[in-house]
Design brief:
There is one protein chain. By secondary structure, the chain is mostly helical. Helices cover 68% and strands 0% of the residues. α1 packs antiparallel against α4. The longest helix has 19 residues, at 18-36.
């Protein structure tokens, strides 16, 4: 089975700014995810929903917690791209942004 191993790459990469790198990776894959899961939502609105999730954790300053959140974000992205999620799981993320 194909494996993206985004979380493993994130763990081993020495990023200067891991949070913006994660956001860019998600933003890059967002049109593909919306197409794969047949979610009828414009990309800018979906990007705004993702941005709000990032802003919820913007006050986190502890590097251990930050590293955990970034790794969790990469794992979520990987699971989404490998079809381990169903459409309702993703709609729950975008709920309220339509």
């Amino acid at each position: 089975m194909a494996s993206l191993q985004l979380a493993t790459k994130a763990r081993h990469a020495a990023y200067i700014n891991p949070v913006p790198t994660l956001y860019r990776a998600i933003a890059k894959e967002l049109p593909r995810v919306l197409t794969i899961y047949d979610i009828d939502l414009p990309v800018p609105e979906a990007r705004a929903g993702i941005r709000s999730l990032f802003q919820e954790n913007s006050q986190v300053r502890d590097t251990r917690v930050l590293d955990m959140l970034v790794e969790k974000g990469y794992m979520e992205l990987e699971e989404t791209l490998l079809h381990h999620k169903q459409r309702p799981h993703l709609l729950r993320i975008f709920e309220g942004f339509k």
